[in-house]
Structures are given as structure tokens and as C-alpha cells.
Amino acid sequence: MKRLIFFCLTLFLLSPLSAFGGGLENFLASVNIQARADLPGFSAKISTQFGVPVPEVHDIINSVQDPADAFMIFQLGQMSREQPERVMAVYTEKKKQGWGAIARELGIKPGSAEFHALKNGNLSFTGQPAVHGGIQDKGRGKGRGKGHQK
Question: According to the model, what pLDDT value does residue 19 have?
Fold first, then answer.
């Protein structure tokens, strides 16, 4: 019960910070709080959001310093269209340089919508599979030709 109260209080206190563009650090702090309050639920949300089996999520969580780092491995993998193993290798090599350096190494260009979303902390941890490239899908086409039947 104390964990739940602490979680709610902390989430309440951090919410205004992230709502006003607190950036990536505040977003990741919030993700860490959620993860530490319910690690199995966190793993399930990551699995659902990024379409990755839970055992693979556990492997990544056990390989990084903070649970939010695992979120970022999958988020950058989605943004760059790279496999988590590749992102993990770049993370291991460049983690001291920060997420921007990791993103650049993965081909996410500074100035791109993905890079700005990363820099500003405009990412979503919803547990829902409705994101495309790290940014909410605005209903654009799925690359099907004209007249294609669903």
C-alpha cells in the first residue's frame, strides 16, 4: 500500500514537469518510477507497445542500468527500424555519450521529427501498439497502392 501511495504521489509531482516540456530526463524519471512500482506490468507494457516477447524484454531489462533504459532501447529500435540487439550494442558502446549520440549512431538525424521527440521527451509509454516510428500515428497511409483492399 505504501508503494502505491508513493507511486501516485511521485507521479502527481512529476506530471506538471513533463507536461511543460521537461525533456527526456523527466520522461525517463517517470518511466523509472512506473517500472519500479510494478516491474512485471512494466515488462508487459513494453512487450505490447513494441511487439516484443516478454522474455526478450526481461533480457534487455537485466542488461541495462535502469528500466527506462530498456524502454529507450526498444523506442530507438522502433524509430531507427533496428533490432533491439543492434540498439543494445550501440548503447553499450556509447551510453556515456547520451541518448542523442546513440540515436545519431542508429541513423536518427538531428533535426528530424524523431530526434526532436527524443530531445524534448515527447515519447509515449502507453503499453499500446499504436505508435509508428516513436511518434503517434496520425492515420497516414500504410504504403499500400491505390485501390488496395484490406
Answer: 37
